[in-house]
Amino acid sequence: MKLIVFGATGGTGRQAVELLLAAGHEVTAVVRQPDKFEMFHERLIVIRGDVFAPSTIQSAMVGKDAVLSALGVNHRQPTTVYSEGTDHVIRAMRNAGVHRLICLSASALEIPPDTRFMPRLIIQLIVRRLFKHLYEDMERMEQNVRRSALDWTIIRPPRLTNGSRTGTYRIAVNRPMTKAKGLRGISRADLADCMVDLLNNPASYQSLIEISY
């Protein structure tokens, strides 16, 4: 497949690029500073692009089979990277006739009713307040994606770690992740593994996916 990855310089995006190349795909990585993206492969194209400047990503979208978006920020200030950035990606996809999109959100956007009191309190009083602006923009992003009519998949990971790739994790499709075992987080490597694994899975189209160990 011919794939394009946004957020390729991040911890998850970079590993997604590596896994896609290992699986034999042709990959285009869109980054703002190509000279700082030190990855080389005969099936990898690195281009300078910015999701806030749609003209820089449109031509790269042509001929692609799917889009993986690991867009994110490393601060807690107000942002539109998720919503506006993804909206520009969606418009570029429509213009190029690309239908498959996998993007990342966060599990704390919804708190399942069976969540125990203390974890619920921590999410409501600490996590959602600390990352208020990020979650608000992720909610806007999810609304944009759901309205797009694309073959989209939104993955909602819990706390991310720098652990190794195991290939062993739980996922829940269009339902809350069971709290019987607790949400123990997920490594960025396994999150990338999940993104790649769902590429050709029609059961994940227009679906919300929760993931955890």
TrEMBL record:
This is NAD(P)-binding domain-containing protein. It holds the Pfam family NAD_binding_10. Residues 7-202 form the NAD(P)-binding domain. CDD domains: BVR-B_like_SDR_a. One of its GO terms (molecular function) is riboflavin reductase (NADPH) activity. The lineage of its organism: Bacteria, Bacillati, Bacillota, Bacilli, Bacillales. It comes from the Bacteria.
